[in-house]
């Protein structure tokens, strides 16, 4: 049951040149485990992902990448994909051939690891055939990268690498609980979860599911309803819920029906807050007020999903923004693992809730936007803003983002 | 977002001899779709699964199998796995080489398809190189199997095959809604969802998730709580819930705390009922009363998961049954796709909730047990029975299974 969302998995990526032994290492790390639960095969250009439980770390995903010395046109594409992996990597395993001499490519790659302060282990492979080259050892030592020597075909070597990964992973700071300071033990929360046509058959979408779980983990209770039964649900409760959490798309209606003395926020605001992005996202949403004819807006989704006729990213958001800023607005879209490196020319970026992206990847995206001075927000924040209820939706976190709320009011 | 559970997907399996073009067909059917969401690579012996949305059918999984003419020891193992796939197949695509002459293997395979009344299409491949053999056409016509001729490398041929699959799938009777006749529009249900250590991090286990969704789909409302807050949750409701649905493991406590005038059942009873298995499963549970020293009990799980120290299948159930029938009981376990063909010697079979198996597979298993006169039940039903609350848990479905309840009372 491979049910842990990608965004919650610790990402361990395997880098190195072609034939350094990356795939052998990948197989060694994942195959011997009875707990390998899925095996997502790459196409010719895509990295290979294997999700598993790595105890005691928990859910991880190993990523096998194309060699960063790949050649030709296809090679260039593969290298680009490998660099995209780097953005979401929590731990890098750099596989080196014992006989390899350091060159510009390796040097540049290690430099990039260092610039990102990425936890890293160099795996010097094929040491049964030859001693590690002196140049390699010298480079690793000057870059202060720990290394380990052996052969990726030997289980004991695999075991030592796993130990190193486990040690690195266990020092990682966990994200704070989703509802920290918002829902306390014994509280009663009320969730409003519309079922729209994009929801997978027979299931709850990820953010709703994660919130339900977070409430139970907080030792609290909840009522759950679609938006059409909100009033009835409120009436059926003998105690007032401490907070109402709604899907952003039902914001206006839910806000109107929820008494003013009950706190109200949205799933996407909670998730942005958990990821430490609340403040910049609020600031980004306010940028919608400054949009004018000729401005170009970039809309980004972290996964590819079926477009619905009332699709939020391609239909609703453009409509709302045009209502605000007129018909002269232009829109561009990006989805999946793609995020433009050059954001020149965009007046603002509106990102989906990013349930399929991990925190490193989202930080990279926000960082890229910040460096290029392009305001960036997410769907939920933008919707709350265009519906005029951002101040109310942010009230539960007032102290955390004092300045932005004042600017808004 | 590959979130539709396997058990809810329409299973389309591709069968045929080695080199008939099965994988080419698989790729053709899945690759051209932007909606291919996962790609589970097989090992040397396992079939390959590709999940995707096949509109307008919905979520499907294509399964590429090993040739049923595979040879050698490994070949025999692969054929066995292929036959296991047959048990859960909703639609069979039989790929044939145009130049192939019918032989015993093909004849036997088609006979099996017919015995199972399995919807089926023969795909005569490689027709760009040769006309279909007369023997092949004759066999298909005598078996009344529709066929289609072309080349699996041609998109138009793939398109025609897809149409045929869509047409077959759209005539399939859907399972009744999970809560049919149990939860009505405007009802308030109460779910008790303990979070045990086996639950995936940050998520809800599948049956709970599906039940939450089913309640929303029924246009009803719900309260959700862990077992420790049940009393508080009941107190916080101004109206009485029409039904309490609990995880089987908390049955005794929940039954004690839920007023007698509120209906009570479990997630597993609901799912067994939806699959039309309630009656035989109840009967199977009652077989526990007849267990005695020397009897052998088979415990089956549909997936492999981490064993916990208080694991239900390996620890709790054996303990409960020994409390009933003494230390002389023997236990055997099966998990994953395995289910013994020969059940001789087992006094009863206890199956997990089977959220990862589809209905055809479960029917096959129950059928096998029935044919060999071995009573079969599931975890939830057994737990309710050993805790003495089966009559109460079945009360919501009293009319559907009158005889069994009377026998129990």
From TrEMBL, chains A, B:
Gene Ontology BP annotations: tRNA methylation; tRNA wobble uridine modification
Hydrogen maturase F tetramerization domain boundaries: 281-396
Entry annotated with the keyword Nucleotide-binding: yes
Any Pfam family matching the protein: HydF_dimer
Protein source organism: Diplocloster agilis
Keywords associated with the record: GTP-binding, Nucleotide-binding
Gene designation per UniProt: hydF
Stretches assigned to the G domain: 11-126
Gene Ontology, cellular component aspect: cytoplasm
Protein name: [FeFe] hydrogenase H-cluster maturation GTPase HydF
Tagged with keyword Ligase: no
Domain named Hydrogen maturase F dimerization: residues: 178-276
CDD domains per the UniProt record, alphabetical: Era_like
PANTHER family: TRANSLATION INITIATION FACTOR IF-2, TRNA MODIFICATION GTPASE GTPBP3
